[in-house]
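Lab notebook, bench 4. Continuing the backlog of folding jobs that were queued last week. Each job is logged with the same field layout so the records can be merged later without manual cleanup. Today's entry covers MTH1187 family thiamine-binding protein, a 102-residue chain. Filled in by technician R.K.

JOB TYPE: sequence-to-structure
TARGET: MTH1187 family thiamine-binding protein
LENGTH: 102
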Amino acid sequence: MAIVQVTVVPLGTGSPSVGEYVAAIKKELDQAKEPIRYQLTPMSTIIEGELDDLLAVIRRLHEVPFREGAQRVSTSITIDDRRDKKGTMEQKLASVEEKLGR
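JOB STATUS: finished
OUTPUT FIELD FOLLOWS
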């Protein structure tokens, strides 16, 4: 199981607002056929699942702003692919809380 942080930035849109693009990306995530889980954050999206599935989803997410009229898209990806044990978004946060004594 991998956890990926992805940030898709539409460029050449004529507006500093990106909310409509984020909404379209969320819709794409909601319709994903791959068995993934995701969490939107104010600055990026965190997705967990099998790496091949995640890469396929990210490829589609990269195309969303183009479909919505953007002329250029910059996509940044950070992959956490731990293979010695299964990790989830919640498990990673719980580990930090445990170390804080909470």
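OBSERVATION: The mean pLDDT is 94.
SIGNED: R.K.
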